[in-house]
Write a structure and sequence with these properties.
homooctamer, 38% helix, alpha/beta, Rossmann fold, 5-stranded parallel sheet, 2 domains, binds magnesium ion, binds adenosine monophosphate, 16% strand, 8 helices
Chain lengths: 213, 213, 213, 213, 213, 213, 213, 213
């Protein structure tokens, strides 16, 4: 496509037969097809083809070809807050890898470990772009953004209950982050974060290839 | 009153003549009367009596007698996030002082200073109770609560714009704090935070006076 | 942890195999592990170990060791409004007990019994901290707070239908309580109330141990 | 009108010249005209006629003729919670009186006085219909309704700040009242409460006039 | 109870064993017990006793004794808008009957029939109190209230989809009814409407029994 | 423009100097320019040109040329509910006239007049398209739509207070209208209603000019 | 009916036995009956009659007689944005056909194809009325409306997740469309769009039959 | 600061004397100080110093030093939708320039010009990063994002009325953009967009300076 992002199917709610047909088509042509939010029904409909496909269970992603990272690109670091935020963080990680970015995971960074966190700052400096997935209070992107020079992409998750309102609490928190310039995604949208990271990385590559001034 | 908290008037919206009458009454009897959210209109109506009263402009509090802290009580530390949160933080400070608590201010703790913040942890250990006032993302109480053993009282402020929705963003953030046990107050309710701190301090005094077990 | 609160797992949504592994680890080391919001799936995954564990069905809590109340602490009184609020109230009670607080239950205090309620006020004076769990109109904490000198912790519950919006009605009611200083928790967060009560009790103990002034 | 309720104008936002014209018309015909929510602009436009009109400043009501209560009807008791709720309570009182009901005021019944309140229950038994106006937590109608056999009409007021959301908090509280059968009005709608009380009183009069069975 | 309304249990969410126990107790004592929102689980738990009980399937009400209407009271007319609003309307009808009111049903009064509706106005004049149940636009109570002299009780239902938001659309419509004095209930609260109608009818009976003036 | 609707400026918030410049430009060229939501500031900035312009005060519309209705088109009937809804209704009327539609006004059709309304149905049959402007409960479009065969365009107004939430109550009511096929506009958007009516009328003209089949 | 729209049943939530009875009645009389939102339960209840009925699975519509388009009417073009919006688009298509309109489908017009879309504009000129179904950002009706002279009817769908809030995001987007005069329907209300299109087409037919002026 | 973004003051609500003091301090030291959202009160307080400062009225920005763009960086293109969105777009432009980015403005790209827009695509290819500011339906970022390979930063504006809810409509539209990877900012936060663009540009510069792989 004109935007440089390959075809990606959103699986949830789709008719399993339609999705199967598209997969068979891409497999035959040997092209990459990525499906996010794959449901048990979709997997069932493709059960006889799963050996030839790549399934990332935690990330709920199914695709025809393995990731082929472009090592000239900057590393995308994916940070998650709580144990339950991992699902969304994995969607971001696997999507970013399939879109050719080197990926590094820093999971389960809870508020309890903040003093430890402050110490490890150097490690973060190796990353080019940081994605932060957090539910509940959505405070982690503010903390990361207050310390990092990198672009920070915040993904609110629907993790929480009661007044988290399915992710509204962290969404609002992130939109109002005290750390200016935080890029906010839709609730649970790990895939979108990976697309933005990819577009940033592609820009950096173009800039490196043909420097201005 | 039965609850041990003295009479406090909420000034906003009250008829200035009514408020003047109550003040004159308390002044005559030499008793403590506290008014919060005092407006310019109320001050105008009492302009001839202001010399004999105590007015805390930032806190928007007017009262008949000065604070008389009870130094056997634990210190109430009041932390504020941004410059504009000071107004609510001052309401908490002055209220707490008038309710006889020793008070310590730690203002303008922005996200930028988090690494500095982590270093100063020992200072916080001297406080008995911590009140945190923050607008925008409301992240600060989670950070403090993740590091402190003290009871933490969070006050969301209406500081912010757009999707802060007049304080809803930090309110939801605080209700969903990753740091469990955070006590949440209404938006901008610095006074309520001071009352809760006072009730906690009174309990501690009673416990010290007549130990159990 | 630095905060003095032991490790607690939120069960809902977790992978049963992960939770089982953590429990086996703690059981082997003979340490206390508490899981709240335990689901039938989690219990199933630990079915062969339930004899050696402690399961509180109403509270939906599972742990490795029994409560060992510290009788030098103040009693935490847990009041519930309606029959369906008991579940949340039990979460508060069992959590508070496991965090070493003496606990007293006052359940099913409906609005119908308010005249009776006013009479029993003396009984409440024996408690150090009061937790009030209520759904629907969330009016009970205001009533208790108007009569009690103790710190009052209000837990809105998702009990109700229609315009209760899953607990929003009592949440807003409690945040706007006419009884100032009410500490508000997230909807259905009985555990958080117990943590705050514990932090208050620990402060009282520290105050008793090393008096100021 | 078919409904038995006389013509009532809602003043806010109306063109003062239009309202003046209607008043002059009714004055000439010697008929009762009631305007609620009268603004300073409306009063200004009728300043030369105010001597011949009746203006109730607190209630913000202007009318051509005085109340003429029908003493065969049941008393409408109007209870208000806080000092700032009086404005709405007065709208209910004056409207009810103008619609021919005997009216009794019980103002400033705060949560602090609940034990006193429980004692005065007998006094309430003299009323036929009870209107309760309350802002903030909107808890008072639940308390009254739990003790009263009369129809209870609840009017949420916009008194409060922050998470009261202009009266949404008491509105939701009242819709979810633990005291079943509470009739809820729009926020600040003291007039509507008076109309409902009138319709109930008219039914009672009809029932007394021509008994069934 | 002091309020003159008998004991009523809300069935949804209750433990079937608890509810069974209460029913057995009341059956033994020969007293009236009413349960609303009875679920299949509750019916199952009482399956061996259903012959001796009264079950109203559409209304989801179970009780120990049949209605015994008091024919000296005014008729409660229950009007419903659409086919799916019947469930809530039946809850209002059966509750009102069990609380001793004569009841008349006027169901499926859609907007299409408004010209027919205007003609039948006389029929409505025979009723003492009118309950209107409507979902979607919630317009029917405004129409009825604009034509009726009786007290009108409006019950918004959760019938609808999309922007009806589970009954919020008709709830707001009713709170803002152009027909002043409309008494509004919680969404789907047919029972509450019956309680209010009963309190009004009881007042009318008391007024008839001991006339004033 | 491609859509057949002439240039229209939304006045509110615009810099008066910019708007003046555009008007001078169109006046010079002798072309039609329409500005809606004109504020006193805009009128002030054009005060020396008002004689040569056409100003419709109630509609808040200013334009360079008078309406020139196309009498071969169907009449657009504009119905308003309450006195305060007239402002929005006038915006619809004047806009529709300027867009060349014959217009007929039916204002102040309150709920009280519904029986009268039902009688006048024949009059409505003369209109081709009906626009209904209503605030508060937004019930009127449902009533009209239940009786009319014409396309009905509903405009919710911000008239009301409290739980009307600035027009949300009638907006939701209209989106959930029991009369299917109601076209809903944004709150207070009388202009949009006129544009839709125009597009419908233009289609009818095209259909009449070149009949199919 | 007076409005010229035949009887249509909303299937969801209806008792299957009631719906079966109505269908049998209409089949016997040989009249058209349309049911939308038919559920598997309804189909099951009519399983022995399905051969004689017409079932449109994607549209979830069941009816007694086939569409009989009136070819003198203008074509209704139904455009859908994403793959999942097809369901609602099909409800609009089948409903429009059953209401006698010629129908043309333009499905899966995603944002990626906008440059292609701009090229195909001529094709759209053949349609008389355009219905656009879109979820997520709801941007498509603005794009279509900015280019089309036809009346545009926008149907927000519940397709999306997180901050789409079940269709609220596209609903608000459409109500605020930069393309004025967009007719907005309730979320997922393809049927309503078809009714409005029919009323517009009927008006055009009447206009063609008896021209004015 | 650690993040590479210089000190920026948010002006709205600040005490003019405090802001004056900070400006004097920075002016003396000859350092860059940027204040956004400067109000007339702040300008008044600095009126004697304005000659030595730089004031961008449309952008509401005041600073001590002029922009010094770094021409080795990628161009930041700022696109605005409607005339009223310019204010926010100017905040983004001036902020981006002050943070050393080359800036290009593409203002007033309304939906009407979409066919023209599609033609100009090549021009956009010269930009490195695209910021899109839009109110009302917030559709423009979806359109741009569907055509551009660059990172797209979307800023919802509070432009609109009624159901735009102060910018909520475009905010939700942007969060649900059909064009994946759109970075969303808080409502009216042009400054935040400029900060994110700067962080992306800085990354590109670092990548160009020390290529990987
Ligand atoms: N997990 C996801 N979250 C958000 N958008 C997605 C996701 N997966 C795929 N998409 C986007 O959804 C669109 C595919 O929609 P569809 O044609 O309905 O499959 C494409 O624009 C994808 O880039
Ligand atoms: N304070 C009030 N609150 C609510 N409705 C009122 C009030 N005062 C008058 N009304 C009603 O508003 C309508 C008058 O509206 P209008 O014709 O615009 O003056 C009538 O139905 C009155 O009964
Ligand atoms: N899919 C639909 N969405 C909205 N309204 C519908 C739909 N299908 C039928 N209706 C309308 O719903 C009403 C039928 O409601 P009921 O009497 O409950 O079947 C009629 O006014 C129909 O025109
Ligand atoms: N227009 C703006 N929108 C959002 N944040 C801003 C804006 N201008 C400055 N800031 C940020 O607000 C903070 C300054 O807050 P304060 O210390 O209260 O002046 C810094 O983090 C700035 O980067
Ligand atoms: Mg966490
Ligand atoms: Mg801050
Ligand atoms: Mg209860
Ligand atoms: Mg009060
Ligand atoms: Mg209906
Ligand atoms: Mg009206
Ligand atoms: Mg799409
Ligand atoms: Mg625009």
């Amino acid at each position: 496509a004109r935007t440089g992002i390959p075809e990606v199917i959103f699986g949830e709610g789709k008719d399993p037969r339609d999705v199967r047909a598209i997969f068979l088509d891409y497999m035959e042509r040997g092209e990459q097809l990525i499906a996010t939010r794959v449901t048990p029904e979709l997997l069932e409909a493709l059960s006889d083809k799963l050996d030839a496909l790549h399934h990332y269970a935690d990330a709920r992603i199914l695709c025809t070809r393995q990731p082929e990272p472009d090592h000239t690109r900057q590393t995308v670091m994916v940070i998650s807050a709580g144990a339950l935020d991992r699902r969304v963080a994995e969607e971001a990680c696997v999507s970013a890898a399939l879109l050719k970015n080197p990926v590094e995971r820093v999971f389960d960074v809870g508020v309890a470990g903040l003093n430890r966190f402050a110490v490890e700052l150097d490690r973060f400096d190796n990353a080019g772009i940081i994605i932060v997935c957090a539910g509940m209070d959505g405070a982690l992107p503010s903390i990361v953004g207050g310390l990092a020079r990198q672009p920070v992409i915040a993904v609110p998750t629907s993790v929480g209950y009661g007044a988290s309102f399915g992710g509204v609490a962290p969404l609002l928190s992130m939109l109002n982050s005290c750390s200016p310039g935080t890029a906010v995604m839709n609730i649970d949208n790990g895939f979108g974060a990976a697309v933005l990271a990819t577009k940033i990385n592609q820009l950096a590559s173009r800039a490196a290839a043909s420097p201005k001034g």
